Amino acid sequence: MASEKLKDMLNEAIARELAVSISYMWQHVMMAQVGAETMGSLMKKIAIIEMTHAEEVAERLVGLGGTPTMEPAKIEAVPPDPAEMLKVDIGLEGGATSLYRQIIVQATKENDPKTRKLFEEILSDEEHHYHTFTTLLETVRG
Question: Could you list the residue range(s) of the whole structural domain that residue 36 is in?
Answer without folding.
Answer: 4-141
